[in-house]
Amino acid sequence: MSTTVTEPVASPTAESPLPATARIPERIPGERPTAAIPFSRLLLVELRKMVDTRAGRWLLIGIGAVIALALTIMFFNESGHHPFAAYLQATTMPMAVILPVVGILAVTSEWSQRTGLVTYTLEPRRARVTWAKFLGAMLAGVAAIALSLALAAVMHQGAITLRGYSGDWSLDNKALLGASLYVLLGIAQGVGFGMLLRNTPAAIVLYFVLPIAWGILGDLVSWLDGAASWLDMNRTMNPLFLVESMTGEQWAQLATSVGVWVALPVALGIWMLHRAEVK
Protein backbone atom coordinates (compact mmCIF):
# COMPACT_ATOMS: atom_id res chain seq x y z
CA MET A 1 0.00 0.00 0.00
CA SER A 2 1.52 3.31 -1.11
CA THR A 3 1.00 6.70 0.39
CA THR A 4 1.32 10.03 -1.33
CA VAL A 5 2.92 12.83 0.57
CA THR A 6 1.55 16.23 -0.42
CA GLU A 7 3.74 19.24 0.23
CA PRO A 8 1.99 22.18 1.78
CA VAL A 9 1.14 24.94 -0.68
CA ALA A 10 2.15 28.43 0.38
CA SER A 11 -0.74 30.71 1.01
CA PRO A 12 -0.97 33.81 -1.21
CA THR A 13 -0.97 35.84 1.92
CA ALA A 14 2.13 34.19 3.30
CA GLU A 15 5.02 36.47 3.98
CA SER A 16 7.97 36.46 1.56
CA PRO A 17 10.96 34.48 2.78
CA LEU A 18 13.26 37.31 1.60
CA PRO A 19 14.70 39.50 4.29
CA ALA A 20 13.34 43.01 4.57
CA THR A 21 16.58 44.53 3.28
CA ALA A 22 16.31 42.59 -0.02
CA ARG A 23 12.78 43.66 -0.89
CA ILE A 24 12.21 46.08 -3.77
CA PRO A 25 11.06 49.43 -2.43
CA GLU A 26 7.63 50.59 -3.41
CA ARG A 27 8.98 53.89 -4.76
CA ILE A 28 12.51 54.80 -5.75
CA PRO A 29 13.41 57.99 -3.94
CA GLY A 30 14.49 61.11 -5.79
CA GLU A 31 13.11 63.72 -8.13
CA ARG A 32 11.29 62.58 -11.26
CA PRO A 33 12.13 64.27 -14.59
CA THR A 34 9.28 66.48 -15.64
CA ALA A 35 10.67 67.83 -18.94
CA ALA A 36 11.32 66.09 -22.24
CA ILE A 37 14.79 65.66 -23.72
CA PRO A 38 15.71 69.06 -25.18
CA PHE A 39 15.82 69.14 -28.96
CA SER A 40 19.24 70.78 -28.78
CA ARG A 41 20.57 67.70 -27.00
CA LEU A 42 19.13 65.42 -29.68
CA LEU A 43 20.77 67.60 -32.33
CA LEU A 44 24.15 67.46 -30.59
CA VAL A 45 23.87 63.67 -30.27
CA GLU A 46 23.15 63.30 -33.99
CA LEU A 47 26.07 65.59 -34.87
CA ARG A 48 28.39 63.56 -32.68
CA LYS A 49 27.19 60.29 -34.20
CA MET A 50 28.33 61.52 -37.63
CA VAL A 51 31.96 61.59 -36.54
CA ASP A 52 32.35 59.06 -33.71
CA THR A 53 31.71 55.97 -35.84
CA ARG A 54 34.40 54.29 -37.88
CA ALA A 55 32.56 54.76 -41.19
CA GLY A 56 31.82 58.43 -40.59
CA ARG A 57 35.35 59.13 -39.40
CA TRP A 58 36.97 57.52 -42.44
CA LEU A 59 34.60 59.29 -44.80
CA LEU A 60 35.64 62.65 -43.35
CA ILE A 61 39.31 61.62 -43.56
CA GLY A 62 38.73 60.65 -47.21
CA ILE A 63 37.15 64.04 -47.96
CA GLY A 64 40.13 65.79 -46.38
CA ALA A 65 42.59 63.70 -48.37
CA VAL A 66 40.85 64.40 -51.69
CA ILE A 67 40.67 68.14 -50.97
CA ALA A 68 44.35 68.23 -49.94
CA LEU A 69 45.33 66.45 -53.17
CA ALA A 70 43.24 68.79 -55.33
CA LEU A 71 44.65 71.93 -53.68
CA THR A 72 48.22 70.63 -53.94
CA ILE A 73 47.81 69.98 -57.67
CA MET A 74 46.36 73.45 -58.19
CA PHE A 75 49.11 75.06 -56.12
CA PHE A 76 51.86 73.62 -58.35
CA ASN A 77 49.93 73.76 -61.63
CA GLU A 78 50.56 77.00 -63.53
CA SER A 79 52.52 78.26 -60.51
CA GLY A 80 49.32 78.38 -58.48
CA HIS A 81 47.99 81.31 -60.51
CA HIS A 82 44.31 80.55 -60.08
CA PRO A 83 41.55 82.85 -58.85
CA PHE A 84 39.96 82.35 -55.46
CA ALA A 85 36.79 81.04 -57.11
CA ALA A 86 38.78 78.18 -58.69
CA TYR A 87 40.27 77.18 -55.33
CA LEU A 88 36.80 77.33 -53.81
CA GLN A 89 35.43 75.00 -56.47
CA ALA A 90 38.29 72.56 -55.78
CA THR A 91 37.35 72.42 -52.09
CA THR A 92 33.59 72.34 -52.65
CA MET A 93 33.27 69.59 -55.23
CA PRO A 94 34.70 66.70 -53.10
CA MET A 95 32.43 67.72 -50.24
CA ALA A 96 29.42 67.83 -52.55
CA VAL A 97 30.16 64.30 -53.77
CA ILE A 98 31.04 62.53 -50.49
CA LEU A 99 29.16 64.42 -47.75
CA PRO A 100 25.76 62.97 -48.82
CA VAL A 101 27.09 59.57 -47.72
CA VAL A 102 27.55 61.00 -44.22
CA GLY A 103 23.91 62.09 -44.38
CA ILE A 104 22.88 58.57 -45.40
CA LEU A 105 24.81 57.03 -42.50
CA ALA A 106 23.22 59.48 -40.07
CA VAL A 107 19.84 57.89 -40.83
CA THR A 108 20.62 54.27 -41.62
CA SER A 109 22.92 53.65 -38.63
CA GLU A 110 19.85 53.25 -36.39
CA TRP A 111 18.57 50.43 -38.58
CA SER A 112 21.66 48.71 -39.99
CA GLN A 113 23.48 48.60 -36.62
CA ARG A 114 20.29 47.77 -34.66
CA THR A 115 20.58 50.71 -32.28
CA GLY A 116 17.11 52.03 -33.08
CA LEU A 117 15.57 50.28 -30.08
CA VAL A 118 17.82 52.26 -27.73
CA THR A 119 17.26 55.55 -29.58
CA TYR A 120 13.49 55.30 -29.73
CA THR A 121 13.25 54.05 -26.15
CA LEU A 122 15.07 57.12 -24.86
CA GLU A 123 13.04 59.36 -27.20
CA PRO A 124 9.82 57.62 -28.31
CA ARG A 125 8.70 60.58 -30.44
CA ARG A 126 10.29 59.62 -33.73
CA ALA A 127 9.53 62.96 -35.37
CA ARG A 128 11.95 64.75 -33.06
CA VAL A 129 14.71 62.23 -33.78
CA THR A 130 14.05 62.44 -37.52
CA TRP A 131 14.25 66.23 -37.62
CA ALA A 132 17.36 66.17 -35.44
CA LYS A 133 19.02 63.91 -38.02
CA PHE A 134 17.94 66.11 -40.93
CA LEU A 135 18.97 69.39 -39.32
CA GLY A 136 22.21 67.82 -38.09
CA ALA A 137 23.11 66.81 -41.62
CA MET A 138 22.30 70.31 -42.89
CA LEU A 139 24.43 71.91 -40.16
CA ALA A 140 27.29 69.59 -41.08
CA GLY A 141 26.93 70.84 -44.66
CA VAL A 142 27.03 74.49 -43.54
CA ALA A 143 30.17 73.77 -41.50
CA ALA A 144 31.72 72.06 -44.53
CA ILE A 145 31.00 75.10 -46.70
CA ALA A 146 32.63 77.40 -44.14
CA LEU A 147 35.65 75.08 -44.00
CA SER A 148 35.93 75.02 -47.80
CA LEU A 149 35.96 78.84 -47.85
CA ALA A 150 38.73 78.90 -45.24
CA LEU A 151 40.87 76.31 -47.06
CA ALA A 152 40.44 78.05 -50.40
CA ALA A 153 41.42 81.38 -48.84
CA VAL A 154 44.54 79.87 -47.23
CA MET A 155 45.71 78.29 -50.50
CA HIS A 156 44.98 81.41 -52.52
CA GLN A 157 46.92 83.55 -50.07
CA GLY A 158 49.72 80.98 -50.18
CA ALA A 159 49.88 81.33 -53.96
CA ILE A 160 50.09 85.12 -53.57
CA THR A 161 52.81 84.96 -50.89
CA LEU A 162 54.92 82.06 -52.12
CA ARG A 163 54.27 81.86 -55.85
CA GLY A 164 54.23 85.54 -56.74
CA TYR A 165 50.62 85.61 -57.89
CA SER A 166 48.96 89.01 -58.01
CA GLY A 167 45.75 87.49 -56.64
CA ASP A 168 42.12 87.52 -57.66
CA TRP A 169 39.73 87.52 -54.70
CA SER A 170 36.66 88.32 -56.75
CA LEU A 171 33.72 86.07 -55.86
CA ASP A 172 30.17 86.81 -56.74
CA ASN A 173 27.71 86.35 -53.89
CA LYS A 174 25.36 84.48 -56.21
CA ALA A 175 28.15 82.05 -57.13
CA LEU A 176 28.78 81.40 -53.44
CA LEU A 177 25.07 80.84 -52.92
CA GLY A 178 25.01 78.43 -55.85
CA ALA A 179 27.96 76.42 -54.52
CA SER A 180 26.31 76.26 -51.09
CA LEU A 181 23.04 75.04 -52.61
CA TYR A 182 24.96 72.41 -54.58
CA VAL A 183 26.39 70.96 -51.36
CA LEU A 184 23.23 71.22 -49.25
CA LEU A 185 20.91 69.75 -51.89
CA GLY A 186 23.20 66.75 -52.27
CA ILE A 187 23.18 66.16 -48.51
CA ALA A 188 19.38 66.50 -48.37
CA GLN A 189 19.08 63.95 -51.17
CA GLY A 190 21.33 61.53 -49.29
CA VAL A 191 19.29 61.91 -46.11
CA GLY A 192 16.09 61.33 -48.10
CA PHE A 193 17.43 58.11 -49.64
CA GLY A 194 18.59 56.95 -46.19
CA MET A 195 15.11 57.54 -44.73
CA LEU A 196 13.41 55.85 -47.67
CA LEU A 197 15.53 52.69 -47.74
CA ARG A 198 16.92 52.48 -44.17
CA ASN A 199 19.73 50.32 -45.55
CA THR A 200 23.23 51.75 -45.91
CA PRO A 201 24.54 49.80 -48.97
CA ALA A 202 21.27 50.16 -50.89
CA ALA A 203 21.00 53.90 -50.23
CA ILE A 204 24.64 54.59 -51.17
CA VAL A 205 24.46 52.50 -54.36
CA LEU A 206 21.20 54.10 -55.43
CA TYR A 207 22.54 57.59 -54.75
CA PHE A 208 25.56 57.09 -57.01
CA VAL A 209 24.00 54.80 -59.63
CA LEU A 210 20.98 56.94 -60.53
CA PRO A 211 22.98 59.84 -62.06
CA ILE A 212 25.10 57.38 -64.08
CA ALA A 213 21.96 55.57 -65.26
CA TRP A 214 20.36 58.85 -66.36
CA GLY A 215 23.49 59.78 -68.30
CA ILE A 216 23.68 56.42 -70.08
CA LEU A 217 19.97 56.30 -70.90
CA GLY A 218 20.02 59.90 -72.08
CA ASP A 219 22.81 59.08 -74.54
CA LEU A 220 21.16 55.88 -75.79
CA VAL A 221 17.52 56.99 -75.97
CA SER A 222 16.92 60.36 -77.56
CA TRP A 223 13.54 61.10 -75.97
CA LEU A 224 14.94 60.42 -72.50
CA ASP A 225 17.52 63.13 -73.01
CA GLY A 226 14.78 65.75 -72.82
CA ALA A 227 13.38 64.21 -69.64
CA ALA A 228 16.85 64.04 -68.11
CA SER A 229 17.27 67.79 -68.53
CA TRP A 230 14.38 68.15 -66.05
CA LEU A 231 14.96 65.12 -63.82
CA ASP A 232 18.74 64.55 -63.72
CA MET A 233 20.03 66.50 -60.70
CA ASN A 234 23.60 66.38 -62.02
CA ARG A 235 22.48 68.40 -65.03
CA THR A 236 20.13 70.74 -63.22
CA MET A 237 22.63 71.56 -60.43
CA ASN A 238 25.65 72.21 -62.66
CA PRO A 239 24.50 75.76 -63.56
CA LEU A 240 24.52 76.63 -59.84
CA PHE A 241 28.21 77.47 -60.14
CA LEU A 242 27.17 80.13 -62.67
CA VAL A 243 23.99 81.07 -60.85
CA GLU A 244 24.17 84.70 -61.97
CA SER A 245 23.53 83.56 -65.54
CA MET A 246 20.83 80.94 -64.82
CA THR A 247 17.68 81.36 -66.85
CA GLY A 248 14.11 80.92 -65.69
CA GLU A 249 13.92 77.57 -67.43
CA GLN A 250 17.05 76.35 -65.63
CA TRP A 251 15.56 77.36 -62.27
CA ALA A 252 12.36 75.49 -63.19
CA GLN A 253 14.39 72.41 -64.15
CA LEU A 254 16.26 72.59 -60.85
CA ALA A 255 13.03 72.90 -58.87
CA THR A 256 11.51 69.92 -60.71
CA SER A 257 14.49 67.65 -60.12
CA VAL A 258 14.73 68.71 -56.46
CA GLY A 259 11.04 67.98 -55.99
CA VAL A 260 11.43 64.47 -57.44
CA TRP A 261 14.79 63.44 -55.95
CA VAL A 262 14.91 65.42 -52.68
CA ALA A 263 11.47 66.52 -51.47
CA LEU A 264 9.65 63.32 -52.43
CA PRO A 265 12.19 60.87 -50.88
CA VAL A 266 12.34 62.97 -47.70
CA ALA A 267 8.54 63.11 -47.38
CA LEU A 268 8.05 59.40 -48.10
CA GLY A 269 11.05 58.51 -45.98
CA ILE A 270 9.70 60.38 -42.94
CA TRP A 271 6.30 58.71 -43.39
CA MET A 272 7.87 55.23 -43.61
CA LEU A 273 10.38 55.92 -40.84
CA HIS A 274 7.57 56.73 -38.40
CA ARG A 275 5.76 53.48 -39.20
CA ALA A 276 8.63 51.02 -39.53
CA GLU A 277 9.00 48.31 -36.91
CA VAL A 278 12.00 48.86 -34.65
CA LYS A 279 13.95 45.67 -33.95
TrEMBL record:
It comes from Intrasporangium calvum (strain ATCC 23552 / DSM 43043 / JCM 3097 / NBRC 12989 / NCIMB 10167 / NRRL B-3866 / 7 KIP). Residues 1-25 are annotated as: Disordered. The keyword Ribosomal protein does not apply. The chain crosses the membrane at residues 58-76, 88-107, 134-155, 175-197, 204-231, 251-273. This is ABC transporter permease. Keywords: Membrane, Transmembrane, Transmembrane helix. The keyword Transmembrane helix applies.
